[in-house]
Amino acid sequence: MKLSAPITGIAVLALGNLLSAQTPAKAGNMVEDVFKNVQALKGITADDFMGTMGIMSAAIGFCCSECHNNAGTDKVDWAADDNPRKVRARQMVQMVQKINRESFNNRQVVTCFTCHHGRDIPQQTPTYAMIYGQGPTEPDDVLTNMGGKQTAMDVINRYLEAIGGAANADKVHSYVATGTSIGFGGFGGGGKVTIYAKSPDMRTTRIEFAKETERPDSIRMTNGKTGWVKTPLAVLSEYQVTGNELSGARVDAMMAFPAQLKTMFTNLKLATPQGISDLPGPSSQTEQEKGAGIGQDRAVDVVQGTGPGGTLTTMYFAKDTGLLLRVVRYANTPIGRIPTQMDYSDYRDVGNGVKLPFHLTFAWLDGRDSIQLDKYQINATIPAGKFDTPESLVK
User: Fold this and answer.
1) How confident is the model at residue 284 (pLDDT cuts 50, 70, 90)?
2) How does DSSP classify residue 30?
């Protein structure tokens, strides 16, 4: 079936079949070491392959079961049946690579989404509603500097003032935040959230589900040098992140300490102002999102810069309050950029004269977490094991 909400609850594997989901994929594991029958995308790491499958799923609006029989059940056999859809997917990847190689000097200009836009069969004919209506409103990934008297740094400085001032923000070196989470589609019935953060670039988010759900913990962690993801019910349930994904995890970790925004980005530019709304999601999540600022359309100033590892990052700051409302970061794959989005709202005083967000929405190509925090412990002492591996965290 097709999904009416963004992407899947389970990672999609359209170009290769699972070899082993029980053994965690470690740094340097190439996709052909972890999966078998990979034909079109050899030579990339396992974590990059997972993201590549996610962007393909998003581009055509498919979930696992539309290419893999019995996906989402214990009867699935990922290695069986090279059906016509999987064969076509490989052909399309090779076609896109050829177009970029021969027509754009090997630059990634054309991707799956260029033609498909969430449809399995690309639309061929324009509608009059599009011709005479508002037309496409999606902004480009790479934005153009607007120019004028206000600069990107002016917007960042205003944000720091809005949360209590740069001097107070600079005094926050670590924190432990706790709260609750409602997973995508209500899976797991919600869980206990703990976020460990330590400057400059260490961050771990752990979601513990009730025992009766028989759902393992969900964990995302980085210590700035390595990172791990552990996701229940995914095809590859635990893997070490490297390259683009590790750089993105470092961006998330560094954004947890607002004072670092002044130094962590290069090529800062102030783009054209926009309007944003709440991130859509299933009613099982959105009906429980009650924090301050939720349910309001907001006019925003848009700042874009290049973060650690060359990670393209776009930030959206409320024009009325100056507060940071959204961050979208991009990772490159062989078939297009992967967006990861974090929305912030419900800012409150956490001590030391600083305000931090109590509601977070983390969206990636494999789900959407809605997190409501209830407490921050500022400048808490955090053991190093909290940023090591999923196993060390659980212990």
Assistant:
1) low
2) B
CATH of 152-394, one of 3.40.710, 2.60.120, 1.10.1660, 2.50.20: 2.50.20
Q: For residue 189, how many other CB atoms are within 10 A of its CB?
A: 13
Among candidates 5, 322, 362, 337, which has minimal Cα distance to 164?
A: 322
Quote the pLDDT of residue 63.
Answer: 77
Q: What is residue 103's three-state secondary structure?
A: helix
Residue that the structure tokens 């947890």 belong to: 256
Could you say which DSSP state residue 139 is in? P
As annotated, the residues of the chain forming the CATH 2.50.20 domain(s) are: 152-394
> Which residue would you say has higher pLDDT here, 12 or 207?
207
- Asked whether 277 and 297 are in contact (CB, 8 A), the reply is yes
User: In the chain, which residue ranges form alpha helices assigned H by DSSP?
Assistant: 31-34, 46-60, 84-103, 112-116, 128-132, 152-162, 166-169, 243-255, 283-286, 390-394
Question: Secondary structure of 174-228 in the HEC alphabet?
Answer: EEEEEEEEECHHHHHHCEEEEEEEECCCEEEEEEEECHHHCCCCEEEEECCCCEE
- Residue 226 contacts residue 246 (beta carbons within 8 Å): yes
- pLDDT for 189 equals 62
b/e map of 208-230 (b: 16 or more CB within 10 Å)? Answer: bbeeeeebbbbbbbbbbebbbbb
The residue type at 296: Q
**CA dist., res. 334 & res. 390, Å (int):** 28
Q: Residue 28 has what pLDDT?
A: 57
Listed as own residue / partner, the contacts of 128-135 with beta carbons closer than 8 Å and 24 or more positions apart are none
Which pLDDT does position 264 carry in this prediction?
Answer: 96
| Predicted confidence (pLDDT) at residue 332 exceeds the cutoff of 70 | yes
CB 337 within 8 A of CB 363: no
With contact defined as beta carbons under 8 Å apart, do 299 and 318 qualify? yes
Helix (H) or strand (E) holding 254: helix 243-255
CA distance 362 to 367: 8
- Give the pLDDT of residue 21: 41
Closest by CA to 30, choosing from 53, 49, 55, is 49
At 149, the amino acid letter reads: K
Residue 376 has what DSSP assignment? Answer: E
